[in-house]
Model the fold of this input.
Amino acid sequence: DAKTTQPTSMDCAEGRAANLPCNHSTISGNEYVYWYRQIHSQGPQYIIHGLKNNETNEMASLIITEDRKSSTLILPHATLRDTAVYYCIVRVAMTTDSWGKFQFGAGTQVVVTP
Amino acid sequence: DAGVTQSPTHLIKTRGQQVTLRCSPKSGHDTVSWYQQALGQGPQFIFQYYEEEERQRGNFPDRFSGHQFPNYSSELNVNALLLGDSALYLCASSLGRRNTEAFFGQGTRLTVV
Done:
């Protein structure tokens, strides 16, 4: 599985957009990009995922570069409750030969300040 | 709709003992995966069950074993506990071979003394 590189930490002002980068330069064509977040001592929470197109849901937007070697998670209006560790994960597609486990890295600690 | 539920929430065991952790997947999900998260680190994949069979396994010793029942619930068993097994154990459920999200439970905090 491809590995990801994320900044160790980021600060963001409440009400502003938070842009979280992720590098996955060795990603393969059959690998998806997933984002999860984990608030202290809770289970990881799914945010969004995509293969090659940009995606948006009620929580966030995912922008994947055309070469798919990097992506950005955008939280449009950060709140204090968005303070968490954010994980960018590259996951092999589920097929008849693959079961697509999630390989977590260290993630980015995001702190949203008033 | 209850999400993924895990029991117990906290557990203290003595070195050398055995422990069983339990997981009920989200309604409609048939695949269960287990992860170990040491303090300050990201979750590490232990194994995954589908149709009551272990489908893939991470880099964990045979002391870690599991089971999936016909109702899709699952157990994680750890034998001969070591101090280093102290961690948050997370269960995640998903739907078969779909490229969709997995939902995680709140975890079981295991402390080995």
Summary: Chain B touches chain A through 28 residues (CB under 8 Å).
